Hints:
Blueprint: H1 3-31, E1 42-43, E2 49-50, H2 70-73, H3 75-85, H4 96-108, H5 113-129, H6 137-150, E3 165-170, H7 177-190, E4 195-199, H8 207-218, E5 221-224, H9 231-245, E6 249-253, H10 262-275, E7 284-290, H11 295-308, E8 312-316, H12 326-334, E9 338-342, E10 350-352, H13 355-362
Parallel strand pairs: 3-6, 3-7, 4-5, 4-6, 7-8, 8-9
Antiparallel strand pairs: 1-2, 9-10
Helix pairs in contact: 3-4, 4-5, 5-6, 6-13, 7-8, 9-10, 11-12
Amino acid sequence: xxxxxxxLLLIGIFVLAGALIxxxxxxxxxxxxVEPEPPRARPDxxxxxxxPPAPPEPSAPPPPVAPPRLRDRLGKTRAxxxxxxxxxxxxxxxxxxxxxxxxxxxxxxDVGVPTTSRLxxxxxxxxAAERVSQPEQLVTLLRAEVAEDxxxxxxxxxxxxxxxxxxxxxGVNGTGKTTTIAKVARREIDDGRTALLAAADTFxxxxxxxxxxxxxxxxxxxxxxQEGADPGSVVYDAMSAAAxxxxxxxxVDTAGRMHTKVNLMEELRKILRVTExxxxxxxxxxxxxxxxxxxxxxxxxxxxxxxxxxxxxxLTKLDGTAKGGIVLAIExxxxxxxxxxxxxxxxxxxxxxxxEEFAAALFA
Length: 364
């Protein structure tokens, strides 16, 4: 064998050996488990090193539903005001036509003639004192005037210092009184109190059934009597049950009586006397008014205030009317504070009345 042939044979042997070694190393790597690389840090915008992304958190339960804002629910009243006050835009001076537009806006919002006249006098004086010359600036002044006009009233719902709290709900038919009672009960239960609903409306068909159904929805108890029974006896039973059970709040639903019926108003006084047998009760007599009735609601408030001493107003359906100015009329003419307003059908759509938010919602 020549030297050239021997050299070529030796080179082939080395090449074959190298290939076998490479094949063995590849199989060895495949047999080992490959671990994923940890996430690498990425440079952040400031030139430093950002931390690697955190693993995803487990999904959290949805947050509780926030109570509605008045601004979102007073669109109809705000639109009515805007149609009148919108004419101020573009005017250069405050003349009689401007004052007429402001007055018209207040009357259309059902503020009422006496309250509107007083607000106009106050607004003129304020505009002169602050040397306001642009018509658009009157809207800002009017918003401040409305908020100040409603400020200072006690809008809290009072509770008993000892024993059950008793709140009496009165009002004419169709104001949403029974539904309002259920929503108030829900608020009290959410605050950690127990609630007992007294079905003292014994004349309207299925009134007690409706209240019983609502009590089940909100988690309250109910005391009811036979249809046509004496409402005072139902209230008496409810007060006794509340004392025995240690109930926190007793909410009394009365018949939706027309304020022109003398005998029915006298019966309401009798219910009031039954509750007064418990020292300090009732802590509240709340008149439920449908805001869509406008000035007629003011008449209702006056009659009920004379009969049973109303301590506060619950104004329902405020979101469905352009007559939101009735709030000003009720408080100015009668001195009765609006404590709660209904701005929807859901249980959380009964909210405490806030003058600042109300004024901001009207003139947003």
